[in-house]
Amino acid sequence: MEGYIVEWLNLLLRWFHVIVAIAWIGESFHFVAVDNSLTPPADEDSRRQGVGGEYWCVHGGGFYQFRKFKIAPKALPGALHWSFIPSYSTALSGLTLIAVLYYWGADSYLIDRNVLDIPGWAGVLIGIGFLAGGWLVYDFLCRSPLGRDDRLLGIAVAAYCAVAAFALCHVFSGRGAFLHFGGMLALIMSANVFFVIIPGQKKMVAQQLAGRTPDPAPGLRGKQRSVHNTYFTLPVLFAMLSNHYAFLYGAEWNWLVLLAIAVAGALIRHFFVMRHRGQRQWWAIAVGLALLAGVFAALQPPPPKQIAGVSSAELFARAERVVNARCVQCHAARPSAQFGFPAPPKGIALDTPALLRANAQGVYQQAVVAKAMPLGNLTAITDEERHQLAQWFEAGAPMN
Fold first, then answer.
1. Cis amide leading into 374 (omega within 30)
2. How far is CA 56 from CA 37, 40, 66, 275, 277, in A?
3. Using CB atoms within 10 A as the burial measure, which of 116, 188, 321, 340 is most buried?
4. Is 304 in contact with 396 (CB distance < 8 Å)?
5. Gyration radius (Cα) of the chain, Å
6. Could you tell me which of 339, 101, 141 has the C-alpha nearest to residue 228?
7. Closest CA to 190 of 234, 237, 232
8. What letter does residue 188 receive in the DSSP assignment?
9. Does residue 293 register a pLDDT over 80?
10. DSSP letter at 351?
11. Which residues contact 157 (CB under 8 A, 6 or more apart)?
């Protein structure tokens, strides 16, 4: 019953999390596009009102004009939109999802005793420490003298991310490490909104309502953090999707894989940010794609090879025995009640030779490369049995 409840919590939380994340990221991308597409106002009246830039667009059968004031309008409108609810909703739902999936079942999803043999409760505390500590270190860097130079600050933040990726991948399972890296960046993004961007905007609004000229400094700090948020977006999305791809988080040098794809995402985002300004920095796309190609080349599986003295039929028989003993308790049309799954996880059943052959790639990635399955090694698969699965797959996954 517990497994059934967890599956429903997973579904509902993940659904809500994706919805609010789409709203937040979509709004963020839109404002970044608008801000980088502004042109000086065409009419004198707008300039007298303090408008620093405007942006015209057509969408959905209508024409729209966006205007940005250099500091603030002389009189604030009665209805003023604040961009924070999607951010906070994404952060809270994401933290809840981590708690349900990775902290509730820490021994199954978070801890890999082949990486670091620690109890589940210790893993939970370390995970929380990374999530909170990421923001503290990042905020310290931004408030330090480095914060006055965007390039030096960017290098410092990137260096910290590299250290965090290395540490996480040497403490947690690959899956848990990638998720916590993305969670750390996502929490930084939401904390930027909560602690810097929104308070700065509220201060400027209060000064304007009091009849004083708003101090532009809070707006500039908020703009800096907003720019950082847009560069974090694609690495965060990758990290959140990575739990579906064991060949990435299960790689021997998984922390380098994580960093390479995160940098590729940031570079691709940089291209589109600059494109809004009318610049085509193709080098960013080229380097990003080169990094992805490098990861592809480095992780490609070995070519099929024959095992001396062992027939194809025997290789399959060995693999089938391992799967029947260690995997089909969950991955069957009717899973064993012992593990509480009402249906095979992710709809993958392995209880017939044809199904095992059809899912050979996934079995190899999850059981051999990532060693993420069996879940928490509840069925006590041995290294020798993983080796037999590898031999079968690397020989071309034959059935006879």
1. yes
2. 9, 12, 6, 16, 14
3. 188
4. yes
5. 25
6. 141
7. 232
8. H
9. yes
10. S
11. 138, 141, 228
**Residue 240: both structure tokens together:** 């959140």
Backbone angles phi, psi at 303, to 5 degrees: -70, 155
At 361, list the tokens. Answer: 């790639």
| Residue 95 to residue 311: CA distance in whole angstroms | 50
C-alpha to C-alpha distances, 303 to 10, 231, 356, 396, nearest whole angstrom: 37, 37, 20, 8
**Is there a contact between 92 and 13 (Cβ–Cβ < 8 Å)?**
no
Helix, strand or coil, per DSSP, at residue 386: helix
Strand partners, 54: 39, 67
Backbone dihedral angles phi then psi of residue 272, each to the nearest 5 degrees: -75, -30
Which is nearest to 134 in space by CA: 83, 174, 203, 181? 181
Neighbouring-strand partners of residue 64: 57
- Find the largest Cα–Cα distance for the chain: 89
**Residue 326 identity (one-letter amino acid):** R
pLDDT tens for residues 296-308? 999 887 776 667 7
pLDDT in tens, 236-247: 999 999 988 888
Among candidate residues 180, 183, 187, the one with its CA nearest the CA of residue 255: 180
CB 231 within 8 A of CB 256: no
Structure tokens given for 149: 């130079």
